[in-house]
Amino acid sequence: MITHLQDTVVLNNGVKMPGFGLGVYKVKDGRTVKTAVHAALENGYRLIDTASFYDNEIGVGEALKEANLPREEWFITTKVWNDQQGYEATKKAFECSLQKLGLDYIDLYLIHWPVKGMYVDTWKAMEELYDSGKVRAIGVSNFHQHHLGNLMANSEIVPAINQVEYHPHLTQETLHAFCKQHGIQLEAWSPLKRGQLMDDPFLISLGKKYRKTAAQIILRWNIQNEVITIPKSTKPSRIKENAAIFDFSLTEEEMKEINSLNKNDRSGTNPDSFD
């Protein structure tokens, strides 16, 4: 488990990835995304998670350049979108993301969704990109167990990451256990269920106990469950607050109580019914 903001998790290929970062889904390109990335970097974040679909890779890249930190200090994730999938198309999409970000290499490249009949070919292209050294680790997003099983049966490299919707209403325990068994690190998107958990009485009561917000309680729960977490915010004060979760610990009992809030309820789409 990570114990401070710049702690890393060792992925299945030996690459070290920060255990906590900033997500920029639906963050407008240009000044808005640059302000968010600057605030994150200034507050000690080193992981930034974007995607070609987010349409803000240019702003993320510009913010990184302006921050003037050594390249090896920050860790950038981007993703190949559904209409870019397939063997040749994925290689083109990767080059396009690399150019927009203004980077020589990407730290982590993910398949955004498991597009039926295409994700295995997409993965073959990603394996080649990995072998060429243009990306340090490759993984997937929104994959169920059966997607992972099919992918691993038809490929050489086991995904380093599976980034999925994960929060106290969707604890994904079976998937998490499967990923652990196969050396795949789970990563959470929408860890706060798009704000829908902020009025949960139990989380609020825990917040009072530890002098934290309900959001900070959830983010701490994620970290203690050994799940890499990338809450999204555009507000510098919230970005700072989200990371202030390393000065307390939830008890084993409290962790179990939060687990018991599970409803298998998604704020996003189920990967099996994603169009």
TrEMBL record:
PANTHER family: 2,5-DIKETO-D-GLUCONIC ACID REDUCTASE, NADP-DEPENDENT OXIDOREDUCTASE DOMAIN-CONTAINING PROTEIN. InterPro entries: AKR, AKR5G, Aldo/ket_reductase_CS, NAD(P)_OxRdtase_dom_sf, NADP_OxRdtase_dom. Transmembrane segments: none annotated. The record marks K79 as: Lowers pKa of active site Tyr. It comes from the Bacteria. Residues 29-262 form the NADP-dependent oxidoreductase domain. It comes from Virgibacillus pantothenticus. CDD domains: AKR_AKR5G1-3 (cd19157). Keywords: NADP, Oxidoreductase. The active site is at Y54 (proton donor). Substrate binds at H112. One of its GO terms (molecular function) is oxidoreductase activity, acting on the CH-OH group of donors, NAD or NADP as acceptor. This is Glyoxal reductase. The lineage of its organism: Bacteria, Bacillati, Bacillota, Bacilli, Bacillales. Belongs to the aldo/keto reductase family.
